[in-house]
Specification:
The complex is a heterodimer of chains A (about 375) and B (about 250). Chain A has about 375 residues and is of the alpha/beta class. Helix content of chain A is about 20%, strand content about 40%. In chain B, the strands form 3 sheets. A 6-stranded mixed sheet of chain B has the order 6-9-10-3-11-12, with helices on both faces. Chain B has a 4-stranded antiparallel sheet with strand order 2-1-4-5, covered by helices on one side. The relative contact order of chain B is 0.19. Classes of the chains: A alpha/beta (about 375), B alpha/beta (about 250).
């Protein structure tokens, strides 16, 4: 209880909310095994004050500092764009955001006859609990363009047996953005979560997923043009046999920004036939930007398939030359190559309509109109 | 069309071209043959404008302009095309999209409006069919997981669609089987007319059975050592580079 008391003494309401949701909820995740020391947190080595952290910063990293400033707005207004999205069948759409103005919201997807739900986080500030009922199949779009605000968000998902849920999460233009994502997948359920983060001024994302047997979990992250630090941590645990997880993070970094990715796949001793995949790729646009990737596997079962990979690269000069040699200018070639790099994440959106709208949105962001 | 005078080129301090002269007029097909390391590919890269080569001496005039003043994309839009020996793989970019972007870049450069998408699709399918390129392949990522032959056909498809004034084929025949060689050669022959010119770079006389050149040049140690007509290629096949190029 000391911990709980200490947290309540914190004055910062934003931080308080964040910690309350993160630490004081009944955490279903197993404590890591004795190999703890191997799993140093990447974000603890960066000189960014997320206030919750009390760690010593290695001297060599002290020269990295960021100034948090008011950003000019990007030319594309995400809020307006998504609010004006046209769906083929408007009867299947429900815009939750226009009705609710609360800090915390519980959504039982069973209560909606519509297939696609849109949640505007400008109105529902932070805590969302989602219940995907058995055998249901829904798409949820959560978007947040809370200009120059510190926005903590927590998303808790309970995917009931045989349920099928897809969530596409957009996050843009925040002063600081925190996302805490936790999902429990029951037997036979499927959850596809795609997070698109653009033009934020520091982001910190934590993704936790716990999988029962025969589940499918996909987690995809797209980071583009974020300033300062974009920090991602994921922990996916396979607790029962025959589940699969697929994780892809793509980041395009510029202007001295830093991206971190640290992801762990944990496979319990009884979780045989697990199929896990994890990939993080970063594209650096200049020499003073940085990418740190730390993939981790912790496997206690012997009949599993788990792979992970990580790449950091810059724009391929030979590819640029090939574009140029066909008359395509360097400027246009770079836009095409950046989009090509991000397409893997966008292609993972299963709903074809939402996928198309998301691709168009990214297109207009990349083209700056 | 293209005139190269006394061209000296080095790369990372190593001299590769040592006083190369070549003149190609409108409507002519020239073949450039030579042993490995003689500077054939370097010449094609220098013409297309690839970075990393130092032009130490000499001049290249293309359509009465100083070619060396133009950027890579400007050269392409001025009608210069290089079919690569090793075309780049571009993951995530659909072949047809790449092609349409290239065509529209050229049209923009020439002050024309963008190509109508139906018209584009129709003409692309037509050319692709002649080259035995399936429509499924046009939807795939450019050159990704293509076989050697498919990549070369892709280059010829791009060349046919962009309809260049001066095309350079850098060892397009390498890695091709007999059928693909025939198809690729037909692609080139279909494009050939009195207004455009070709420089066909190859090791082997075999390609020239299909694409009949007006002139044949032999390059050795960075310069052209012998020029002639088609019979020179036959002579070369018989005697080999050692005897012919170095006059032993």
């Amino acid at each position: 209880m000391d911990l709980a008391n200490n947290i309540q003494n914190i004055n910062n309401p934003v931080l308080l909310d964040y910690l309350n949701t993160k630490i004081l909820t009944n955490d279903p995740f197993k404590k890591p095994f004795v190999e703890n020391y191997k799993y140093a947190q990447l974000n603890k080595h960066i000189n960014i004050d997320f206030k919750a952290s009390t760690f010593e910063i290695p001297k060599s990293l002290l020269d990295i500092s960021f100034e948090i400033s008011s950003q000019p707005h990007p030319e594309v207004d995400l809020l307006e764009t998504i609010q004006n999205w046209n769906f083929h069948n408007s009867d299947s759409i429900f815009r939750v955001g226009s009705l609710v103005n609360r800090k915390s919201i519980q959504i039982n997807l069973d209560n909606f006859k519509e297939n696609i739900l849109l949640l505007d986080l400008n109105k529902i500030q932070n805590n969302i609990q989602i219940e995907a009922s058995p055998s249901s199949s829904k798409v949820l779009i959560i978007y947040n363009a809370n200009r120059n605000q510190e926005v903590p968000q927590s998303i808790f998902i309970n995917s009931s047996k045989q349920s099928n849920l897809e969530i596409v999460h957009f996050d843009l233009s925040n002063k600081k953005s925190f996302l805490y994502f936790q999902s429990i997948l029951e037997t036979g359920s499927s959850l596809n979560f795609t997070s698109i983060q653009y033009f934020n001024n520091h982001t910190r994302n934590e993704f936790y997923a716990s999988l029962d047997s025969e589940c499918n979990f996909s987690l995809h992250g797209l980071n583009y043009d974020n300033k300062g630090l974009n920090d991602n941590y994921s922990f996916i645990q396979h607790l029962k046999p025959s589940s699969s997880s697929r994780e892809i993070f793509k980041s395009i970094i510029s202007d001295g920004a830093i991206t971190n990715f640290q992801g762990k796949i944990y496979v319990d001793a009884i979780a045989q036939k697990t199929d896990g995949y994890q990939m993080s790729r970063s594209l650096l646009l200049d020499s003073h930007s940085k990418a740190n990737n730390k993939p981790e596997l912790e496997i206690y079962a012997d009949d599993v398939k788990c792979s992970h990979g990580s790449t950091v690269s810059k724009i391929n000069q030979d590819q640029l030359y090939y574009f140029n040699s066909r008359g395509i200018s360097t400027e246009i070639a770079k836009i095409i190559l950046k989009k090509a790099f991000l397409m893997e994440v966008l292609n993972s959106i299963r709903d074809t309509q939402v996928k198309e709208l998301s691709i168009n949105l990214i297109d207009s962001l990349l083209n700056g109109h | 069309m293209l005139e190269i005078k006394n061209l000296h080129v080095s790369m990372e301090g190593k001299k590769i071209l040592k006083g190369l002269d070549l003149k190609i007029n409108q409507g002519e097909v020239h073949a450039l043959m030579g042993p490995n390391g003689s500077g054939k590919s370097t010449l094609s890269y220098v013409l297309s404008g690839k970075e990393g080569y130092d032009i130490e001496e000499g001049s290249i005039t293309y359509k009465n302009k100083n070619l060396l003043d133009l950027e890579v994309d400007e050269r392409a839009n001025e009608g210069l095309f290089l079919a690569f020996q090793y075309p780049m793989e571009i993951p995530g970019v659909q072949t047809s999209f790449f092609l349409r972007t290239a065509i529209n870049s050229k049209r923009k450069y020439l002050g024309k409006p963008e190509i109508d998408s139906l018209e584009f699709a129709k003409s692309m399918r037509g050319v692709a069919e002649k080259l035995s390129i399936s429509s499924e392949m046009l939807k795939r990522d450019l050159n990704v997981n293509y076989s050697g032959g498919e990549k070369k056909k892709q280059e010829i498809l791009q060349m046919s669609m962009l309809n260049p004034d001066m095309a350079i084929l850098d060892e397009t025949d390498s890695g091709l089987d007999i059928d693909a060689l025939r198809i690729v050669s037909e692609g080139v022959n279909n494009l050939r007319n009195n207004n455009n010119s070709f420089l066909v770079i190859t090791h082997y006389q075999r390609l020239l059975n299909y694409i009949k050149p007006d002139f044949v040049h032999i390059i050795a140690d960075g310069k052209i050592v012998k020029s002639g007509d088609y019979s020179l290629a036959l002579e070369l096949e018989e005697k080999g580079y050692e005897n012919l190029a170095f006059n032993k």
